[in-house]
Predict the structure.
Amino acid sequence: MSGLTKIEVKERVCAAIEKAMPRLMEIAETIMAAPELGYKENKTTAFVQQLFTELNIPFTTGHALTGVKGRLKGKSDAYRVAMIGELDAIICPKHPRADEVTGAAHCCGHNVQIANMLAVAIGLQAEGVLPELNGEVVIFAVPAEEYVEIDYRNKLREEGKIKYLGGKQQLIYEGAFDDIDMAMQMHVETAHTEGGEMGLGSTSNGFIGKLINYHGKAAHAAGAPHEGVNALQAAMMGVMGVNAIRDTFKESDYVRFHPIINSGGSLVNVVPDYVAMESYVRAANVEAMIAANKRVNRALKAGADAVGATCEINDLPGYLPMRNDAIMNEFLKENSIIWRG
């Protein structure tokens, strides 16, 4: 069948998606019930492969460890557009659907992203649609969007299993986007209207990932604290030092620093001799990221100097600032308004 108009193509795509809604809801729920953290999405990627097989979508695996890349071919290969869905969850132990062991939960809605990605695939497989497309659509399930478990991922990097801690950076490094002309994805927010809402993406800060280790000297906290060097106090003073320079950052650079302590001592009656922290230094542009990171490092190390401890900082590649394509945004907006009437 050929000669369909754009409106007819859209009608067929949307009708196929509407018909598949019960299955798509089931897919989202299945992934919701088995959340996995980045570079560990083994069950989720196996499920996606199963779904691709059911839909007769040819695919390749192993992209950035767990990514799955499928293809839907149109009448030519003039263009390649990717529809991306993210595989990973985030750590949120108090979420009602969190994994009891890992604390992982899909509170960022990546399970919906995967279902949405498959909805696109199902819609494009409606009768007569693919022969009308002057290009290919790449259905790409990608890993490790959430930049968490920095220490674990850095060990993967040191072992040579990955080069970058974020999944898309790793995919770019591997060349997985080299054959793709443009890519898009959706994210989930809570709607305030019964019929739902749609917004257009704008920008996002970039950041440098950080592993921060303070080393002191253990001693009995009650009997001989004077013989110890308190690494926890050093860390606290380092963070206070960063707080003291916050008002020197330009507001237009949107600098952010928000550390967590992974290890802050072992026993109350022992002076902590080791503290491990993770953090980002975020900013709106690369120059601000680099400048702010240097100043943050200086403040963190000053905390160690103040009490006679040492501070080791491992700066790791994070994400560059995101700038969505304005033309694609406007095209999506106009197309959605026209189609929804």
